Amino acid sequence: ESGTGKEIVAHELHRLSGRRGPFLAVNVAALPGTLAEAELFGHARGAFTGADRDRRGLVEESSGGTLFLDEIGDLPLALQGKLLRVLQDGEVRRLGETAVRRVDLRVLAATHRPLKEMAETGSFRIDLYFRLAGLELEIAPLRERPKDLARLIEETLVGRATLTRESASALKAWPWPGNIRELLAALEAAVALAAPGHVIGLEHLPRALRERSAGAPAARSYRAAVNAARVGAIQDALLETAGNRTRAARNLGISRQSLLYEMKKLRIGAEENTR
User: Can you tell me the distance from the alpha carbon of 6 to that of 3, in angstroms, rounded to the nearest whole number?
Assistant: First the structure.
């Protein structure tokens, strides 16, 4: 999903790889259609209007290092063949040139789109898909990573602000559809609004969180109270097991399937995982 920290993971993989070259990241979806080829693969002088000099593309610039292609599913089919040649042969040809140049880089790609299904229907090259899918990492949404949520809140606020019990509960209960990006934006705004007292209350959080939290006390029915207790028990179990659903179910004394059903019913990260 968008905002889960894909680029951060990619950067750490590069840092730990021992590669001495640069780490370059590009959002493929943001590349202008007419200039995407030149941006990625470079161009020769005179290749198109405005090309007044030879220019290396991002593939050449990242040689010796890592190139991170975010939203690879948006790469035009016409350019997928050129990227495949880079991966297979370690060669790149600039726009407007016939000569090929050798490159040595690690390519990491990310997407929120179903690449395998796209490859099967022809909207993404299946040979490129299999080249890229040699090693896959799935980054779960923040709502399924309660331990990460608690750590991100703590590390962002340490030495800057503290939370009231109400604001801490609101942050914990929110599903964070925008993931880490949404969380950090909310915390930065709250820190600014809470100054100079540096105590973040419910009034400093985004409206959606305030409204959800304000709505909770009003629904004091038996069913609402039971559901709130169920949500709290499940979230606490997931927090204690770092999101491991099998262990969380065991600690709660229910089957894993029952836990998944409860999470779906209560809207606590309903996606299935393998843990």
Answer: 7
